[in-house]
Amino acid sequence: MPDRVLTGTRARNRRLDLGLRQAHVARIVGISGSYLNLIEHNRRRIAGKLLTDLAEVLQIDAALLSDDTTDAILSPIKEAAAAFPEAIVEDARAEELVARFPGWAALVAAQRRRITQLEERTEALSNRLAHDSQIANSLHEVISTATAIRSTASILAETPDLDREWRARFHTNIDTDSARLAQSSQALLGFLDMEMEAGDTQTESAMEVAEAELAKSGFYFPDIDAGMELRFDDVEEPSAREILRNWAKVARNDAERLPLEEFSQAARATAYDPARLAAWFNVPLNVIFRRLAHLPTDREHPLMGLAVCDAAGVVTFQKPVLDFRLPRSGAACPLWPLYQALTQPGRAIRRVVRLPGGAHTPFECFAVATPVGDVSFVAEPRITATMLVRPAKNEDTPDVVGPGCRVCTVKDCTSRRHPSLV
Amino acid sequence: MGQRVLLIEDEPNIIEAISYILSKDGWTVHTHSDGETAMEKVMQGVPDLIILDVMLPGRSGYDILRDLKAQDATADVPVMMLTARGQAKDREMAIGLGATQFMTKPFSNADVLESVRALATP
Questions:
Q1: Which residues of chain A have pLDDT under 50?
Q2: Measuring CA to CA, which residue among A308, A325, A398 is closest to residue A133?
Q3: Does B18 reach chain A within 8 Å, measured CB to CB?
Q4: Of the residues A16, A91, A105, A376, which has the maximum number of CB atoms within 10 A of its CB?
Q5: pLDDT tens digits, A159-209
Q6: How many cross-chain Cβ pairs, A to B, lie less than 8 Å apart?
Q7: Mutation site for B-interface testing, chosen from A126, A133, A147 by largest number of B Cβ within 10 Å
Q8: CATH number of the domain at A258-407, please?
Q9: Which PROSITE patterns does the entry mention (chain A) (predicted)?
Q10: What is the per-residue burial (b if ≥16 Cβ within 10 Å, else e) of A21-31?
Q11: Cross-chain Cβ contact A170/B55 below 8 Å
């Protein structure tokens, strides 16, 4: 059994399959019979016009005769065989398959590549569905409402002597919950639609990979406070690795300006008030936001999230907290203070907001937009907005901000740019 | 007065339905719907049993469970977790943190009642 079927062997096998005589083929391509014999026994290399002519006579794509193409086809064919061990394939004759039936072999290889691609996409979408907090919240709303309906309906059906007042009350509850169920299931569909649309064009973005990597450590790395450089060499995706390295660089600079122990004490002393901390340490607000959001989680610091966007409103970093997460796909609601800060660079904004519907946590948001890098006479300033997000105390009445127009239930919103699906 | 159960859940109509069936069964039902202040509510009067939702505004049920098990006064109180998630890892997490029972929404009233009665039996 040959380890490798070379171009000459493939040409010979093909010629024999077609029932052509060696001398006949040699005459058509303009070489001697003995030279073709050397080629067919892999003692002469073949390329260029001769390869093209020979492929034409053998009624085969020239690329399928070349060794590079064989490698490209053989590898996925072997992968396909390995993926279906229950199929009894002639494993040792894979090269022969490529040599004798290059077209069919190329088809099997193409299908294998397509299957791999689809499996990767399915996995990415599945991860999204499992980890996307908006979908999780929407699903939670649907199931909770269904639970309330089921429980209430059971009481009505199984309690014949139910007091009239209670009966009326439970009927009203079912009416309210059924309307909510209709609304929340439509919202869920809207989210799934958005995810599927996003899945058509991309799988997991580099930012999502980076975010997931940071989330594994709770967005806190003691090495950064120890002044060490983090390289994230084990992250395979180069763009994600770059994002992580940039993040680590900024985090290290912040840690140098605001040493952990000193900053933690000051944060507690000021009740985590960003404005007072900025004055205390004489650093810009956006630095304070970042440092607060990246405090270690095991020291009883309150939960805090962060979002950063560029001047186009593209979210370039976020640390989610509870059900706060700006949408990955589609545009977010412009009412988030993060985007409002962009319209007034330098102005600090504080607002308490919540997402529409059910029992969403109110969030206290602090946002500011600032120029990044050196100021220059020849270049436009690069502006980014930074927003600190944390669960709000119950003192303020929250403004409602949407998750995104398509799945937002707020009526008569002057910022709506797309009709709601719910 | 019957045994006291504290229901920590944020869906008002689930609260109403569970409160009704448990009250009818002889339990004294207290309710609370905010995650952040749930521990304060528990400490105001440690109940005989706690029914705890996972997804609550302000603080997750898992965090509250962790606190309950860390404090002497509440470590032995049976906790039944309610969750809209029924995946094995959620169940493992709840049990790993010390939950006595784990119930997936949507549940039946009979299941709730049966579990509560079983947990109340020493």
A1: 1-4, 199-203
A2: A325
A3: yes
A4: A105
A5: 988 889 999 999 999 999 998 898 888 777 777 766 555 544 444 567 878
A6: 76
A7: A147
A8: 3.30.450
A9: HTH_CROC1 (PS50943)
A10: ebeebbeebeb
A11: no
